[in-house]
Amino acid sequence: MRITRIVGGRSRRAAVIATTGLTATALLLAGCSSDSDSSGSSKSDANGPITLTVADYGQFGYKEAGLFAQYHKLHPNITVKENTTAQEPNYYTKFLQQLNSNSGLADVQGIEVGRIKEIVDTKADKFVDLSKVINVDDWVPWKEKQATTSGGQVVGAGTDIGPMSLCYNRDLFQKAGLPTDRDKVTQKVQGGWSDYLALGEEYKKHAPAGTYFMDSASAMFNAVVSSNAQQYYDSSGKPIYQTSQSVKDGWDLANQAATKGLSQGLKQFDPSSWIPALRKGTVATVVCPAWMAGQISADAGPKNKGKWDIATAPGSSSANWGGSFLGIPKSGKHVAEASALVKWLTAPAQQAAVFKAIGVFPSNKGAYSLPDVKNAKLPYFNNAPIGQIYAQEASTIPAAVLGPKDGAIKDAFSLQINNMEKRHTSSDKAWNDALTAIGKVVG
């Protein structure tokens, strides 16, 4: 399971990316910073041997990109040890216990985007202020805002993001009489998610037997909601999931997809249904954050190489699904050294190296002009120019208002959308059941 990054029930697998590579020397030198450029004071002799611990979940890509070994070459007295938990929910439960007891924490801790609001609101005093370490303007603007308190403290430095695109099966599109060129597909859905459903109805008219336009209406729901600034909470922190326009729009579109039979109603990443569907080629489109391409290529398998492609997501604004941060607990024994490490790991050259290694897209804008990002293509997806596509999508993502229970709210809606698809539950009943479940979590 080391190859798979599991985040809140989702998983990510490394994509094979064709790029123009940086030289090893350039990678070692680019983004390198002085150990003295940090906040807080170290509790150890900076010239003596130091082991820095990094706790994370799934696959952050640092080992795969060889970054910890490279950092040791730059700083021979520092060895970095990574402690990885496979499933993020298990990691986060332990992480909260450690924060509450102020013990057992690593020098650097990974934080999932779905948890960052809760950490910012309730645990910020436990973390070093990274506004003294990094230049937040180097990141896409909405990314670091997610990790910033109302007082301006930056709790975490952004690692990756998940700008949304649309992955589609060119082979199935051709058999259904739809355009297969990625620019033409983008034009077909440029009006938004209603256009996406209209394309689905076109597909259904001539669809190959046993195939469906989309894998999951709940994935589309998530994309619709996430492409708006206002989602489940308002700017004051009040839950608004019952009245949010983006939630209503997403729900109505998901209901249409379910009732019109456009979705196969799969639970994404389920090894008993979703993965076999990709391998058999029964799904024509998948809502596709940057990391999803690697997931599809791994699960659809070698026989489907070249049958897939990537188009721009429907509408004028993209969505973000996924992404993490690196935070530094104040209780660490090596705060200054940990700060320098985090700055280096999240610098453009290192984020580009991780993208090349496992396919997760950088949140540091400086990486977008580097060859390993700018020239990146995915052979599996008909050589789609993913570096350009994802950078364009990242620039249109709104600065969303996050809430502490976003993940639980989304999961409750997704479960009931799946019930509409598989059990033919009415929209009204599914909606009320979702609200009941959410009320037990949110209060």
Tags for this model:
40% helix; 443 residues; two-stranded antiparallel ribbon; disordered N terminus; 9-stranded mixed β-sheet; alpha/beta; 15% strand; 11 strands; 18 helices; single chain
Order of helices and strands: EEHEHEHEHHEHHHEHHHEHEEHHEHHHH
Q: Briefly note the structural class of the backbone.
A: alpha/beta
In percent, how helical is the residue content?
A: 40-55%
Shape annotation: globular
Beta percentage is 5-15%
> Low-confidence stretches at least 5 residues in length (pLDDT < 50)?
1-11, 20-44
Radius of gyration: 22 Å
Largest sheet: 9 strands, mixed
Oligomer: single chain
Number of strands: 11
Q: What is the helix tally?
A: 18
End-to-end Cα distance: 36 Å
Mean pLDDT over the residues: 90
Outline the structure in words.
It contains 18 helices and eleven strands. The chain has 443 residues and is α/β, with parallel strands linked by helices. The strands form two sheets. Strands 3, 4, 5, 6, 7, 8, 9, 10 and 11 form a nine-stranded mixed β-sheet that branches. It is globular and about 70 Å long. The chain starts with a strand and ends with a helix.
Give the helix/strand layout.
Elements: E1 5-7, E2 10-12, H1 24-29, E3 50-57, H2 67-74, E4 78-85, H3 88-101, E5 108-112, H4 113-122, H5 141-146, E6 157-169, H6 170-175, H7 182-188, H8 193-205, E7 212-214, H9 217-226, H10 245-259, H11 274-280, E8 283-289, H12 292-300, E9 308-312, E10 320-327, H13 335-345, H14 348-358, E11 361-362, H15 371-374, H16 386-394, H17 406-422, H18 427-442
Parallel strand pairs: 3-4, 3-5, 7-8
Antiparallel strand pairs: 1-2, 5-10, 6-8, 6-9, 6-10, 6-11
Helix pairs in contact: 9-10, 9-17, 10-17, 17-18
